[in-house]
TrEMBL record:
Signal peptide: none annotated. GO terms for molecular function: acyltransferase activity, transferring groups other than amino-acyl groups. Belongs to the plant acyltransferase family. The gene is LOC113869733. It comes from Abrus precatorius. The lineage of its organism: Eukaryota, Viridiplantae, Streptophyta, Embryophyta, Tracheophyta. This is Deacetylvindoline O-acetyltransferase-like.
Amino acid sequence: MEGHENGGKLEIVAIMSVPPLKVTEPRRVRKVLVSEEHRRTIEGCYQTVLYYEKLKEEEHGWSLAGWIVESLAMVLLDYPLLAGRLQRREVGDETELEIVSNDSGIRLLEARFPTSLPEFLALNQKEHLEAELVFWKEIDAHSPNFSPLFYVQVTNFECGGYSIGISCSVLLAEALLVENFLEKWAQIHNKMSTKNEEIKTPIFYHPRLKTPESLPSDIITRTKSKNGVQNMVFKITFEDVNFQKELWRELAMLCVEDAEKKLSTNMGSGFSLVVKESSDVIKVESCSKNGWSVKGLRLKHQITGTTWNHFGVYEVAFTEGNKPVHVSCWIGSVADGHVMAVPCLKENACGGVIVVSPPPFH
């Protein structure tokens, strides 16, 4: 944990695993189609930080983290893959990757930062500090079954206020972006809190047990955030939802061209494209701008630049009436150009494309 101008540093005081409330039966499996040369693509993650003020005296991050253990376990019943692990499977002479809902659990961390929330937000304008409010450790390519795919970090600030930082593998990110995981989690959390109003503190409430001490940093090493990576989000609307999946790739290429102009960057000769083929299959492939032709695309569509708010994270309230005062979202832990196509085929037939430009030293 790095120190800063104010002399303070982030301290992790607790870490645990949270599995679904009940055993997942039958186990869900999602195939990950990716070539051996692009296995490093599994390192990418979607990250978001939601900042909350303390509205009531009893509302603080320590108590919230205690209740989160229970509400997370409940919402994971509907999203068991988030608590699963990536594993290898031998098929003949080839090795395949798949995500299995084996209930190993998501990682939940509790932390504290020695400044007030307003001071932190002001300081963050000068330094990229919020990367410390989300925890991510890159997936071990050799033994992926030991690597969590989802992390939650609750950080307390002095004088009240807290943040909830979430890191999720890009292989599962659509759960947060289009399946309303955060909204459903917050709804469960609020209902549970209402029922437990007579209980002053939850079972998993560390300050009640003892004064929390920071954990040794060598047992909770995190992957450092890569600087200089820029993100752009596009919203695509079209009239016909019955079209071939390949057209998503062509639409994504249009977004890449627009992003290069607006970000004054170059995605390079090749970059990674992640497309959710179905609920059970996600594909990671290498793309080249020279390998696609978008001029002949026959599809009535509209592409507009948008913001992360398109996915609704700015409205998530874990305490009724207390919406976040600030939200940050980004795709992190990617070394090269990266594109995610997030189909959201609903009544208005729309979807999103997220373009991540490579860092300037690329």
